[in-house]
């Protein structure tokens, strides 16, 4: 296919991962989950004893990590030094620690560089999602979308994802705390100039995918 970069940002629980993956399938494009890269660096620091408050050490971990992330929408796979960490990076301990990596500017710079290389490696035919894709990683993407949802809808989705293993109270604390920490470094709550806002609160997965594809058709 011809080059087509679709950039999708949004907070946790906005549904952006499932939506982006399915949009990539339908467009026969690659798919990049940038959050998985922040998670992989976080887990790597945790398992190798890197103090997450030590910025130079976290930056160095981001620079040296042997990280291999699948960009196929049909194969979810994250390898660190050849070990499969696809499931481990979703553990609650990683979710609560990941903002430490996300707020280390040197680590961000390195991950942004790797993300841009992966986008180039796809032949610029990719759906990339995260917090700063529309603004920093791929500001020149043909399609830029901010996927939002009310806090209520986001908490419901996160709860479903985790299989009801956590109380409503716990969930709310985790989701709002992570959003608050993330907001200190990337503004993913407000659409930048030229970014289309799509509110998915009242839409199911299929309807959201359809809405994104309509935006793609309108501009690309
Ligand atoms: O998307 P996900 O919730 O898996 O992202 C995990 C974390 O990675 C976010 O909470 C945020 O701290 C960080 N992140 C980021 N920039 C991105 C993607 C994720 O800072 N583009």
UniProtKB/TrEMBL annotation:
Q: Where is the composition biased (Basic and acidic residues)?
A: 169-178
Q: List residues binding ATP.
A: 10-18
Q: Which reactions is this enzyme annotated as catalysing?
A: CMP + ATP = CDP + ADP; dCMP + ATP = dCDP + ADP
- Give the superkingdom in one word: Bacteria
**Where is this protein chiefly located?**
cytoplasm
SUPFAM superfamilies for the chain: P-loop containing nucleoside triphosphate hydrolases (SSF52540)
- Region (Disordered), start-end ranges: 158-178
Q: Which GO terms describe its molecular function?
A: ATP binding; CMP kinase activity; dCMP kinase activity
Sorted keywords for this record are: ATP-binding, Cytoplasm, Kinase, Nucleotide-binding, Transferase
Q: Which Pfam families match?
A: Cytidylate_kin
Query: Domain Cytidylate kinase: where?
Result: 6-217
The subcellular location is:
Cytoplasm
The signal peptide here is none
> Recorded E.C. number(s)?
2.7.4.25
**GO CC terms, sorted:** cytoplasm
> Would the keyword Manganese be found if you checked this record's keyword annotation?
no
An annotated GO BP: pyrimidine nucleotide metabolic process
* NCBIfam families recorded: cmk (TIGR00017)
Instruction: Describe the family membership recorded for this protein in Swiss-Prot or TrEMBL.
Output: Belongs to the cytidylate kinase family. Type 1 subfamily.
Protein's name according to its UniProt entry: Cytidylate kinase
